[in-house]
Amino acid sequence: GHIQGLVNWRFKGLERAIKEGRTISFEKLTSMTAQEFYGGSGSGNYSEYYAQARYLCYYLQEQGLLVKFYRQFVANAQSDPTGYGTLKRILGESDMRAFQRKWEKFVLGLRAQ
């Protein structure tokens, strides 16, 4: 009854960005405008930002937290429009820098299919 995300072609670019230290904080990622996120036509940032967001959702999916996050994100949209506070609560993380390192280790442990 649910769509199941899989490792896809975006993995390689994200893997490279992690290894080169080019990922951005989840706070910045969640607070971007659509224009910043998509970066305009021909921007190299689009794929990296999209891949980072996609694999954050993949992590949530694999931890059994994606549906819970989505429901709480929608419910809290007025008070937490970026979803960053909701993300922290769902993850049970207060140190998001430490979580990002944990998430990057998770991503690097994946294999592109």
Essential attributes:
7 helices; globular; mainly alpha
Structure write-up:
By secondary structure, this protein is mainly α. The chain contains 7 helices and no strands. The radius of gyration is 14 Å and the shape is globular. The two termini are 23 Å apart.
Summarize this structure briefly.
By secondary structure, the protein is mainly alpha-helical.
Find the structural class using helix and strand composition: mainly alpha
Averaging pLDDT over every residue, what do you get? Answer: 93
Annotation field: number of helices: 7
- Helix content range of the residues, please? 55-70%
Number of strands: 0
Radius of gyration: 14 Å
Described by the principal axes of the CA atoms, the overall outline is globular
* Low-pLDDT windows of residues: none
Taking the sheet with the most strands, its summary is: none
Q: H/E order of the elements?
A: HHHHHHH
Beginning-to-end CA distance, first to last residue = 23 Å
Q: Helix and strand layout, with pairings?
A:
Elements: H1 10-19, H2 26-31, H3 34-38, H4 45-62, H5 66-75, H6 84-91, H7 96-108
Helix pairs in contact: 1-4
